[in-house]
Amino acid sequence: MKTKIILVFTLVLVTTILVRQPVSAISHSSRPLGDSKVVATVPSPGYPEGIAVRGNRFYVSGPAALGQPLGSAYVNAYDLKTGAFEATYPITITNPFAGMSAASCVAFGPDGDLYVVEPFVGIIRMDLNPGNTQSVYAPFIRPVLRCSTI
Fold this sequence. Notes:
36% strand, 150 residues, 4-stranded antiparallel sheet, single chain, mainly beta, Thrombin, subunit H
């Protein structure tokens, strides 16, 4: 079963207006405000979570469903205009004590790297190069239990 990625035209329109086009472009839109369309599908088990856009690609992280086996988290790249699949970047850093993996929110940093939340590891920095270079940017810190004496 494939899950469909739907981009809401409202967000695309607002981004386009604020970044690239004059306000007069609003009345020339061929699609109604709030319209959406399927631009791509993600592989099974589905559950895409984060979407980030850079250049002519959009990046989708997943699966967000907890309970998937180690090594199942990924970031996929798609062409922004056509929705065609372009590349996959598996999350290679896992926590073997958790026994599962996931990929949640994504965002690009000012350094151009993609930052992905892996709930069992922390924040993973991805260079999105052919070598799929990754590092733990910020590990999740386990809480320290403190015992007080009376």
